[in-house]
Every structure is written in C-alpha cells, then in structure tokens.
Design a protein that fits this description.
By secondary structure, this protein is mainly α. The protein is 66% helix and 0% strand. Helix 1 (20-44) packs across helix 2. It is elongated. It starts with 19 loop residues before the first helix and ends in a 7-residue tail after the last helix. Keywords: Membrane, Transmembrane, Transmembrane helix. Residues 1-23 are annotated as: Disordered. The chain crosses the membrane at residues 49-68.
Length: 79
C-alpha cells in the first residue's frame, strides 16, 4: 500500500470564474468585507452601535404601528 492518498481535487480550477459565477463571487467577497468592517466598527464603538440599533428598532416599530392603525380604521366608504 502506498502512503499517498490521491483522492479528490486539491488544486484550483484551471479557468477563472466568468459570468454569473464571477458576479456571485465578487458579491460574496464584498458582503464579507463590509460585514467585517461593520463588526470591527461595532467592537470599537459599542455604545454608538447600540444606539443605532435601538434607533432603527424604534423607527421600525413606529412605522409598523402607524401602518397597523391605518389598516385597522373603518373610515372607508368603499364597500
């Protein structure tokens, strides 16, 4: 028996990705880069990050509340 295991593909593809695969790879790389930057910024400024998250949450709640109140009103004369 040989000590070498030559099963599977361990190299890089010969052709670089093109078309949709290239766009998807570039988009994935951009998302990873930006999420890393956001995480680093939040780690350096935890109070600011908490304030931003709470502000966005309060605005989302207020918008949902207003839309819910509007949808529940029976002022419509259209039957």
């Amino acid at each position: 028996m040989s000590d070498e295991l030559s099963a599977g593909f361990t190299g890089r593809p010969a052709d670089p990705p093109t078309g949709v695969r290239k766009v998807a790879k570039d988009a994935r790389d951009a998302v990873v880069r930006e999420s890393t930057a956001v995480a680093a910024g939040a780690a350096e400024h935890p109070h600011t990050a908490t304030g931003i998250v709470l502000t966005i949450g309060a605005l989302a709640f207020a918008i949902g509340y207003v839309l819910g109140r509007d949808a529940g009103s029976n002022d419509s004369r259209w039957w």
